Amino acid sequence: MVVFAGHSGSNSTPYERFERLIELPPSAKLVYRVLEEDAPMTQKQVRNEALLPARTTRDALTKLKDGNLIEERLYLPDARKRLYAPLEIERPDDAVE
């Protein structure tokens, strides 16, 4: 198990991240959901789990990373690869009243 220490560059709230996520294409939402279930994962692991083409997976990961919705770390067994993990989101209906 790999544990990510902190959320590098994450200055947004979980609610703000949710707002950005809902504006992304379905493929990015699927990739985010896959990462929620079993992160951290490499791009290939995400692709296999989501049943998406490599290019679509790569594009979705880029959009999620640009939106500060996931974090990317070095994959120690193979420095050419990266591990991805989702940052926490909060749906408006999850808020405590």
Explain the overall architecture:
With 97 residues, the protein is α+β, with helices and mostly antiparallel strands. It has a single domain (14-89), classed as Arc Repressor Mutant, subunit A (Orthogonal Bundle), CATH 1.10.10. It has helices at residues 14-22, 26-38, 43-50, 54-66; strands at residues 41-42, 70-74, 82-86. It has a three-stranded antiparallel β-sheet with strand order 1-3-2. Helix 2 (26-38) crosses helix 3, helix 2 (26-38) crosses helix 4 and helix 3 crosses helix 4 (54-66). The chain starts with 13 loop residues before the first helix and ends in an 11-residue tail after the last strand. Mean pLDDT is 88; it is low at 1-9.
Topology:
Elements: H1 14-22, H2 26-38, E1 41-42, H3 43-50, H4 54-66, E2 70-74, E3 82-86
Antiparallel strand pairs: 1-3, 2-3
Helix pairs in contact: 2-3, 2-4, 3-4
